[in-house]
Amino acid sequence: MIDIKPLLEISALKLAGKIETFDGEQMNQYEQFLVSFIESFPENEQKIKAAMEAKDRESLAANLEVICGMLEKIQATDIASNCRGFINVLKNHDYENEKIEAYVTAFLGSTAMLSIDIQMAKYLEKKTKAAFLEKKMENAAPRNPDQKTILAVDDAAIFLTMLKKSLEGEPYKLTCLNSGESALKFLKTNNPDLFILDIEMPKMNGYELAGKIREGGHEAPIIFLTGNATKRYLMRAIQAGASDFIVKPIDKKNISYKIYKHLYLQDA
Predict the structure, then answer these.
(1) Which CATH fold would you assign to the domain 4-123?
(2) pLDDT tens-digit series, residues 27-67
(3) Taking phi first (over 0 means left), then psi (-120 to 50 degrees means alpha), and beta for anything else, what does residue 203 get?
């Protein structure tokens, strides 16, 4: 049975005061709702995108209704309520296409992130990271105890620029590189406290880079950047050493929380 502690840490799930009272049968049913949401989300996402592309508002509303029903079952009530409000406006008013696209893009981003967070709670066991924590650091520069360091690797310059802007004013030293090869050279003399890696990169993708990072003895958490919320995709990332995920396009509030969580809260 799934551990309720990581579920309670997912802010989009309004479970506090509820899930603690579930008996075994209720917990099993709730877990089935979670699995159904996870496994059906990629298909529902594609249907919504297809309706958007076809400018078929009736189909768009119907497919949003499906996800809203699932969100309510898993207690993601704030997202579901907001979505139902949008559906009512969509059905009853002449909503501009640009506003529809903006809302749906944001909605899919938040639900994809929720799917990923649930999968992390359900499938990422402590032993996934434990093997790496047993390794001792060799030939690595000591960490600065006064300032946490982050290495971000992405071949897209626009993302690295967005990341820099998102972390302006934060107490981190951020190094941005555009390839796995340059990252490995950097790691010969540096030992970051956190890694942010894009998965889809040429020559050396994020999975391969993560493997080489661990082989080199670096044990800091790895946050993967992704636009894909399928279980198979995430499981491969977890096997490569993922501690967490961030969905593109990035949200400043979300990425700030994820970084703070892994730099300061994991061992609290």
Answers:
(1) Four Helix Bundle (Hemerythrin (Met), subunit A) (1.20.120)
(2) 999 999 999 998 899 899 999 999 999 989 999 999 999 99
(3) left
> Using CA atoms, how far apart are residues 240 and 218, in angstroms rounded to an integer?
13
Q: How many Å separate Cα 61 from the centre of its chain?
A: 26
Highest CATH level, class, for 126-265 = alpha beta
pTM of the model: 0.68
Domain ranges of the chain: 4-123, 126-265
d(CA 68, CA 81): 8
Residue in the block written with tokens 């506003």: 99
pLDDT tens readout for residues 193-250: 999 999 889 889 999 999 999 999 999 999 998 877 777 778 888 888 888 888 877 7
